């Protein structure tokens, strides 16, 4: 069974292009716990340790994604 992936916006350090890149859920969970993650850019063969800022953005991004979904689950019907 293939583990599900979460798409994260990653900016390539080579060409500065931002792309949604798939990371396994366990990898992302580890990143949130340890504050360390190895990012990679799909457009170039590049990988690097995420900076504090990138980890921060990762938190922000996941919070944004999670909040509306949680609200939907609680209320049953999404608010407009
Ligand atoms: Zn690139």
Features of the shown structure:
80 residues; alpha+beta; two-stranded antiparallel sheet; 2 helices; globular; binds zinc ion
First-last Cα distance: 37 Å
* SS field, number of helical segments: 2
Residue windows where pLDDT falls under 50 for at least 5 positions: none
Helix/sheet category = alpha+beta
Strand content: 25-35%
Cofactors, ions and other ligands in the entry: zinc ion
> What is the residue-averaged pLDDT?
85
Radius of gyration: 14 Å
Quaternary structure: single chain
Give the topology string: H per helix, E per strand.
EEHEEH
Helix content: 40-55%
Q: What would you call the shape?
A: globular
- Largest beta-sheet characterization: 2 strands, antiparallel
Strand order of the largest sheet: 1-2
The counted number of beta strands is 4
Describe the structure.
- This protein is of the alpha+beta class and 80 residues long.
- The protein has two helices and four strands.
Produce the secondary structure layout.
Blueprint: E1 5-11, E2 18-24, H1 25-34, E3 38-41, E4 46-49, H2 52-75
Antiparallel strand pairs: 1-2, 3-4
Zinc ion (ZN) is lined by residues 12, 14-15, 17, 41, 43-44.
Structure summarized in a few sentences:
The chain has 80 residues and is of the alpha+beta class.
């Amino acid at each position: 069974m293939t583990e599900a992936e979460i798409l994260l916006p990653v900016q390539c350090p080579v060409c500065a292009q931002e792309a949604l890149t798939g990371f396994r859920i366990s990898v992302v969970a580890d990143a949130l716990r340890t504050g360390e993650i190895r990012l990679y850019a799909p457009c170039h063969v590049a990988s690097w340790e995420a900076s504090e800022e990138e980890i921060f953005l990762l938190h922000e991004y996941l919070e944004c994604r999670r909040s509306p979904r949680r609200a939907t689950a609680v209320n049953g019907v999404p608010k407009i």
